[in-house]
TrEMBL record:
Protein name as catalogued: TPM domain-containing protein
Source organism per UniProt: Pontibacter arcticus
Cited InterPro entries: TPM_dom
Residue ranges of every copy of the TPM domain listed in the record: 5-120
Pfam families: TPM_phosphatase
Length: 145
């Protein structure tokens, strides 16, 4: 079961990284963990992105970190507003950094590093707006089967 793959402390580490990253940006970050990924990992991440209503943010600036633990699949998916402005290698850099920790089964560490990297880019392009910014999406980790 994906939920049992993290200790409560690791789960809190990931949520804290999301909250820290979102302090400086109007961007929204979600994490989804499940056991298996049937088919292409980017196709599945796109399905989860839609299921979590991440495409409904005002500035189209949501980022999904998707992991299928048993199948060793990982993807980082950004919405249209982000993909239009981040550097070409941006998602690959985050993926590479996170996978280094995943190989050691340090999922929370890898996710936290990747989330902080995403937060830095989001801060540059989608700065926090003190008077109008709201947390549009939950910071909690979502779990599949």
């Amino acid at each position: 079961m994906p939920k049992e793959s993290l200790t409560p402390e690791e789960e809190q580490q990931i949520v804290a990284a999301i909250q820290e990253a979102e302090l400086n940006t109007s961007g929204e970050i979600r994490v989804h963990i499940e056991s298996n990924c049937k088919g292409n990992v980017l196709d599945r991440a796109t399905e989860v992105f839609a299921d979590l209503h991440m495409h409904l943010t005002k500035l189209r600036n949501g980022v999904l970190f998707y992991i299928a633990l048993d199948d060793h699949q990982f993807a980082v998916l950004g919405d249209a507003g982000i993909n239009a402005i981040v550097p070409d290698h941006f998602w690959e850099d985050i993926t590479h950094e996170a996978i280094n920790d995943f190989k050691q089964k340090r999922y929370a560490d890898g996710l936290a590093k990747g989330i902080k990297m995403a937060g830095e880019q989001l801060k540059k392009h989608f700065p926090y707006e003190a008077h109008s910014d709201t947390n549009e999406l939950s910071d909690d980790i979502s779990f599949g089967k």
